[in-house]
Amino acid sequence: MTTMTETSARFREFKMPDVGEGLTEAEILKWFVQPGDTVTDGQVVCEVETAKAAVELPIPFDGVVHELRFPEGTTVDVGEVIIAVDVAPGSGDAPAVPEAAAGVAPEPVAKAEPEAPKGRQPVLVGYGVAEASTKRRARKGVEVPGPAAAAIQAEINGHGAAVVESRPLAKPPVRKLAKDLGIDLATVTPTGEGGVITREDVHAAAAPAAVVAPAAPAPVVTPAAPTVETVQGARETRIPVKGVRKAIAQAMVGSAFTAPHVTEFVTVDVTRTMKLVAELKEDKDLAGVRVNPLLIIAKALLVAIKRNPDVNAAWDEANQEIVQKHYVNLGIAAATPRGLIVPNIKDAHDKTLPQLAAALGELVSTAREGRTSPAAMAGGTVTITNVGVFGVDTGTPILNPGESAILAVGSIKLQPWVHKGKVKPRQVTTLALSFDHRLVDGELGSKVLADVAAILEQPKRLITWA
User: Fold this and answer.
1) C-alpha to C-alpha distance for 432 and 153, rounded to whole angstroms
2) What's the mean pLDDT in 254-260?
């Protein structure tokens, strides 16, 4: 091992963390600091975009920014050093910062840390590689570098382990997921490298029989603004495909050519539903939350799933199993400045109508503000995409990978309709349900779609069927 010099120990390097399970790269969207700026522990220094979401990265130590390793717009591999910070400014002329290629990260002064094992290590978002505050078992005879090496070495070699504070290892999105699902991380058995708790571990603790499919991006994305300036009069503009758009393209191609899609349609009179929406807007129990047709459609789909639970499932290709989900994480497509994303409402099946309305409002506002976290988009089971807001009658939506069904809702229009034997103007919409024909046959898919339509036609069924 190369011993760090006293001078080089002035510098700390912050590496690009894995801000989502299994991601290998991220694009630096914006730097919030420049060389010479003072930073403090927890201060956000940059915003990066991964294949799942845009995330702000906080620096995990104090100091003065010495160097930004990459400019904005650069795609950086996880584990690459992105910023170097002088943690002891004013102690002399600053030498050159050690190159990332040397493979040795500088240590802070007066802080003893074990040498990082070779290979990629689990990185916690905003905290770099886990340090000595983590409980780890050390073998006898292991060498410990740093100023306090002799004392620490004697302690470890004498007792076989260093006793430190114990705290479950998990990334912030995983911690939020555990909080949303009501899971105590201390009770979860980790399976990730280095004892890190993964999303799959949390879902396994919540529903041990379920096999959780990877998170999927939205079915549709609005193209990002060109990163290459278009010359006036040019006949073409080339837009780099990366980040969220690249991931969505790959996911949609994989879904379209892996799961055999079937789409069914039904046109329904929703006049009574629209009257119910108007009445609920005046209900004091729903004061302060947004009430719209999507709320009733979401509740109708949840009731339809309750009546036909086999539709809420996933196909496990590796084990050749159909995995039935006993919970509904309801995905809702939301328009954002970065395009359309699909966060989901955790355990939507357990929510009352006021709770569902509040959750929908929070989900949409968070998405539009660009603050949706990767955890909020993970673990969806069934999705609703409301294409009607664009004036579209309906569509044939592509399934999110790992989900069995997606409901498209068309625009609600006043149309001539036969009602009680007479042609009258009625509020009408068209629904489209796409489903995975490997696990949802025509009968099951038809029952789900028919139930949703029946509830929207006669919303009193929300009570009689619930």
Assistant:
1) 66
2) 61
